[in-house]
Amino acid sequence: MGRSCPSGTWRNWAGNVTVRPTREARPASVAELAGVIRGAVDDGLRVKTVGTGHSFTSIAATDGLLIRPDLLTGIRRIDRSAMTVTVESGTPLRRLNAALAGEGLTLTNMGDIMEQTVAGAAGTGTHGTGRDSASIAAQIKELELVTADGRVLTCSEKEHPEIFAAARIGLGALGVVSAITFAVEPMFLLTAREEPMSFDRVTSEFEALHAENEHFEFYWFPHTGNCNTKRNNRSQGPADPPGRLSGWFEDEFLSNGVFQVANSFGRALPAAVPAIAKVSSRALSARTYTDIPYKVFTSPRRVRFMEMEYAVPREAAVAALRELKAMVDRSSLRVGFPVEVRTAPADDITLSTASGRDTAYIAVHMYRGTPYRSYFTAAERILTAHAGRPHWGKVHTRDAAYLAEVYPRFGEFTAVRDRLDPDRLFGNGYLRRVLGD
């Protein structure tokens, strides 16, 4: 039946979601996972699985059975003819990246942190930035799903294709993912070019910067006209990673240490935030380095924050950003965190934020402990006016009625859910709001 243990209090990374489940379980195999799910059904308990808690919403919250997947880890198999890796669902992305690198393999694209579990990252639509390569979920070739009746389903484009289309970003609503098969490719090098650039230049040249680079992103510092851009492109090498001292200075001292102090000061003295922003936006200098993908795509995030992110049609990105800047400029808001902008190509996943349309992501943040609702509300008003789709794991106020309007295939997902989980074993308050009953 799997390992059950007394329940304690569970908190997410940002500290804004706290739950005390009736029971916890730590299954070590798919058979044990199916067993604890059947046991929960018998005892009338709802079921949720938590990863590392990097969602800002209560998507994983439950007062029933909380499944911790920390024993469902490791690589099951690598298929070099199909160029795939099958990995247990609780494996952290950090461990997967390191293991693949040891085999001379890599994912094509990834987000900017790697603390999440593979199932948590995929199931909430975690993404990086890419002209041609899409989210983590879009790289899935097959997944194994334990459903409400304890069955183990293997889903792919050929086997249960309608479930596969939905379950790659399943929000934890269709069952518990026990294993994922990702497409991989031979290891390659990326050259990163980081460069300050003005807001006016970035927005006027946005389409060209997107078209000319495999992976383009930028950060705008509110209260300033300054941005920091990052362009990642494949390289023939040689590898030329940041020096130990310069890498520590940029990634740890400036991006985490000084940034933590600056935000703490800004939280205590909001009037100082614009001045701090002007200094912060000029602190990071241009640099170029070449390394393997996960060392270029990802970076440490030690400063805790709250975040809201919306996906808008790529052609609407510049207009939305200019409206966001105008709103901040004329308001009394004091925003100490940069706004992050990334892109993704259209994909065919039912509830992917990039489903059916080329997409730009606009993410707003506030330092943890700083009032964020007025800023997020004003930003959300702008982004929803451009048919924005909220990131499933980040703060938003949208409900099923709104989401059904911006996702043409919304009804496909809820139909699959009705079939797989008619009694809402995997339901909770968040899913009730975003998917309806």
Overview of the molecule:
This protein has 437 residues and is α+β, with helices and mostly antiparallel strands. It is built from 14 helices and 21 strands. The strands form five sheets. It has an eight-stranded antiparallel beta sheet with strand order 17-14-16-15-19-20-18-21, sandwiched between helices. It has a five-stranded antiparallel beta sheet with strand order 7-8-12-10-11. Strands 1-4-6-5 form a four-stranded mixed beta sheet, with helices on one face. A hairpin with a 6-residue loop joins strand 2 and strand 3 (18-19). It is globular. Residues 1-6 have low confidence and may be disordered.
Major sheet: arrangement of strands: 17-14-16-15-19-20-18-21
Could you tell me the mean pLDDT?
A: 92
What is the structural class? Answer: alpha+beta
Inertia-based shape: globular
Number of helices: 14
Rg, Cα atoms, Å: 21 Å
In helices, the fraction of residues equals: 25-40%
Work out the number of β strands.
21
Major sheet size, sense and barrel closure: 8 strands, antiparallel
N- to C-terminal separation? 30 Å
Enumerate the spans where pLDDT stays under 50 for 5 or more consecutive residues.
1-6
